[in-house]
Every structure is written in structure tokens, then in C-alpha cells.
Amino acid sequence: MNYSETKIKGVYLIEPRVFNDARGYFFEAFKKEEFEANIGPVDFIQDNESKSSRGVLRGLHYQKGEWSQAKLVRVIKGRVLDVAVDIRKSSPTFGQHVMVELSEDNKCQFFIPRGFAHGFLVLSDEAIFTYKVDNAYAPQAEAGICWNDPDLGIKWPIDPSEVLTSDKDLKQPLLKDAWLFE
Predict the structure, then answer these.
(1) String of b and e for 160-178 (b: at least 16 CB within 10 Å)?
(2) Rounded Cα distance, 133 and 125, in Å
(3) Which of 114, 117, 123 is closest to 149 using CA atoms?
């Protein structure tokens, strides 16, 4: 696999070596020893999966404090635009984001460390999205930032009237009003 650190330290795009033949393809999606040699130790404890239709925007989510999570995300079917926002107040890249396209074709993965808000927009008719996390879900620590906060400058490639999101995500605070990491 090829591990490329993005413009924000600690956030990585991971491109697998894919072996194609007449039968289909094969690739290693996760190899702990290689991952830790390139990124560092992370103890993933759970895998999650979601299915969404075109225009669904999930995020920007994170968990607070001791319940924060690092994530390793990828798309099994379809295409999404995936975003990580640095919400560490003491970081030189605070408030900045990285946006990558993940798809069943490129088979890339995106590593998002603790201290980041995360979200994605479905670009295909349907997408199956999977991710590993290194901490349990804790409803009392659940938090988020408004997906269209103008201070973030995220250029989602969809008319806001076409976005499908949850009522909870429609009520998320702006970055300036959100709980943030030190």
C-alpha cells in the first residue's frame, strides 16, 4: 500500500496495490504491521458500515474527550466525497479540512486521527461505506459541526437544496460554537 500524508499532519490517503485478473481483483484492505509502520499504533476495535443514496450527507461528526475516535474509512460500492476537519484549537491547521474522493474503483482508504470532525457526501446512486474505529460509540460524547458552516469553506459539489441529511445534522452548531479539542 502507498501511504500519503495529506496537507494536514496525521491525515492519510492510503492507496492499495490491487491485483486484477480474469476472476476479478484482490487487495489487502488492512495490514496492522504495515499500517503501524507508516502511521503509528492504532487499536481498531470495531468495524461499521452504512448504505446511503445519492445526495446523502452524513456529518460532520466526532466524539468528545476520552471518547474521541480515529477512523479508517473506505467505500465498498459507489463513490463519496469524504471530509476531515481539524478541530484541535492548538493545531496550526485548526479549522482546515482535507477532502478526498473514495470509490469502489480507486479502493483508497482515508485515515482520520482523533481530534477531527468527519463527514461524507454520496456522489453515486448508492454507496456502501465502511470504517474502523479505535473507540466505542458513546452517545453522551456525540458532537458535530454544521456541514455547511461558511467558516469551513468546504465546497460540496451539490446544491444545498439537494442534500439529504438527518434532522440532528441540520441542527449542528457552527465551528465557532462547537465543543473543540484543546
Answers:
(1) eeebebeeebeebeebeeb
(2) 26
(3) 117
Instruction: List, in order, residues 6 or more apart from 88 with CB less than 8 Å away.
Output: 94, 115, 116, 180, 181, 182
Find the catalytic residue in 61, 62, 97, 118: 61
Number of C-alpha atoms within 13 angstroms, CB side, residue 30? 16
What percentage of the chain has pLDDT greater than the value 70? Answer: 100
| CA distances (Å), origin 79, targets 46, 135, 168 | 23, 26, 24
| Joined grid coordinates for residue 75 | 467505500
5-49 pLDDT per residue, tens: 999 999 999 999 999 999 999 999 999 999 999 999 999 999 999
Question: In 10 A of CB 41, how many CB atoms?
Answer: 8
Task: State yes or no: is 118 an active-site residue.
Answer: no
Exposed, middle or buried, 148 (CB in 10 Å: 0-12/13-18/19+)?
Answer: middle
Sign for the pseudo-dihedral over CA of 114, 180, 90, 156 = positive
